[in-house]
Amino acid sequence: MERVRSAVYLEEKIARGFLWASVLVTLGAMLAIVFHILEQGLVHVNWTFLTDEPRFMGKEGGIFPTIVSTVYLILLSLAIATPIGIMAAIQLTEYTQKGPLVKTIRFATETLAGIPSIIFGLFGFAFLVLFMGFSWSLLSGGLTLAFMVLPTIVRTSEEAIKSVPLSYREGSMALGATKWQTVWKIVLPSALPGIVTGVILSIGRVVGETAAVILTAGSSLNIPTSVMDPARSMSVHLYILAMEGISMEKAYATAAVLIILIFIINTIANRIMRKMSSNLAA
Amino acid sequence: MRKIHETIIEKLLLFSAVVAVLVVALITYFIFADGLPVMQKYGIAHFITGSDWHPLDKQFGLLPMIAGSFLVTLGALVIGVPLSVGCAIFLAEIAPKQVTRIIRPAIELLAGIPSVVYGFYGLVILVPLIRELFGGRGFSILGGSVVLAIMILPTVVNISEDAIRAVPREYKEGSLALGATHWQTIKKVIVPSARSGILTAIVLGMGRAIGETMAVIMVVGNVATLPESILDPIRTLTGNIAIEMGYAAGEHSQALFATGIVLFAIIMILNFMVTLVPKRVGE
């Protein structure tokens, strides 16, 4: 009896040890990556690096055009995906919730979320770059990225809309508002923080995407002046710097900028989410 | 007047919802239209079982890449799943509040870090480390597996944790009341009850690992041959497309779309497997 009991306690201890270890390894991996990149990269990040043109394929100079291109890609893809995503979410939550069409739409959204980015890249290349004749451009890249983030926006918007209490809608309808007036004036404003969180998380995805961007927007280092110009995002720039061995120093610096950007994006998303949950609780 | 206004909006909403369906249909059509003809011409068997990839000599064997994708994914699961499920159990069952407050943002940051940054870290740290510890060139299945294990962590942790938290309290209380220790309860009651959710998490993580491109390219060496050990370099299906798409033309380009079809098929099978997982125990 005594032996059985001590075996149980030993197992308990080992198990706890394993669980703690798995968390520590995870935290350790995260810290190792972030600290290494920031430590090696931040020393090369300064105002000139952010605002200067790259020279010799990025071996010297800064990353200004890639920042501009990244911002354009974010604006373009979200300008397309946000309205479509929110409207799709409204349709799925407020208008029709059942039936074969809704099932198909849900299946398609889930499928879209699972498709690897390189497939999006291939598709963007075949459909937008070649078939539609947009060539390697901000437009091709922006559209491809819009398709990629669409499921995220639909899903987060749906969650946000669903969390709006039913009584809000009933109150509005009772006052004689139409269905759409209720959605537009009551439901959407209440769901806004959740929707914004989804959009912000999508920005993170656009910033980090490489494979699909390189196949659709190209890798030109010039500052794009129209949506038909090719462009190189920061992630693509980092990939090329590192893989072609152009400059490890600049690669570290670019990676550090990317990590800081993601850190800012996550922090903003968390702030909004926390505010939202405290609002709902109130 | 108001009636027309509302009808137009409803049409617009419906159209937006259908966009996702259209995009999926377009993707399927364009990948297959470009990849299928060359697959039919040389035979599907040539693509799936051929082990020589010499696209300029009309040798389109994708077996090394299929093997590469699966091996590197398997490695990622072997390393990543115990870690992730461990983290999930810890977060749901054991973690004090303050610890959770540190771990959760850390996992979110891990989820947000661009894949190319992981690849870069693998290239500058992991590859030289493997080279020093085990010999060889360092670009290897092992390197790819470690990088992917970290990358799938957030997905598997989040979904498993939700599954574990969804286990009814009574199960746990009943087990503890019968005198089981906390770990016995976790092992015999909580994890088995959350089994389907954890399985879903693993399959989704697997999908992410197979679909990952840039991070893998940077650490696996991209040699299109069948590997003999985990220290050998490999090439994945995704890498095959990304590396050669830039300069491929004619049948070579079509063969890359065929690679896309194979990848697409694998992902669809995985997605289908997720729907097969029963939602609750006993269903």
**Number of DSSP strand runs of chain B:** 2
In percent terms, what proportion of residues of chain A is strand?
A: under 5%
**What assembly state would you assign to the polypeptide chains in this entry?**
heterodimer
Unreliable residue runs of chain B: none
The string of secondary-structure elements of chain A, in order, is: HHEEHHHHHHHHH
CATH superfamily of chain A: MetI-like
H/E element order of chain B: HHEEHHHHHHHHHH
Tally of helical segments of chain A: 11
Helix coverage percent of residues of chain B? over 70%
Rg from Cα of chain B: 23 Å
The overall pLDDT average of chain B reads 92
Q: Give the end-to-end Cα distance of chain A, rounded to a whole number of Å.
A: 53 Å
Characterize the biggest β-sheet of chain A: 2 strands, antiparallel
Describe the structure.
The complex is a heterodimer of chains A (282) and B (283). By secondary structure, chain A is mainly alpha-helical. Chain A has one domain: MetI-like (MetI-like fold, Orthogonal Bundle). Chain A has eleven helices and two strands. In chain A, a hairpin with a 4-residue loop joins strand 1 and strand 2. In chain A, helix 3 runs antiparallel to helix 8, helix 6 crosses helix 8 and helix 7 packs antiparallel against helix 8. The longest helix of chain A is centred in the N-terminal third of the chain and has 40 residues. Chain A is globular, with a radius of gyration of 23 Å. The mean pLDDT of chain A is 91. Chain B is 78% helix and 1% strand. Chain B contains twelve helices and two strands, in the order ααββαααααααααα. In chain B, helix 3 packs across helix 11 and helix 6 packs antiparallel against helix 9. The radius of gyration of chain B is 23 Å and the shape is globular. The chains are: A mainly alpha (282), B mainly alpha (283).
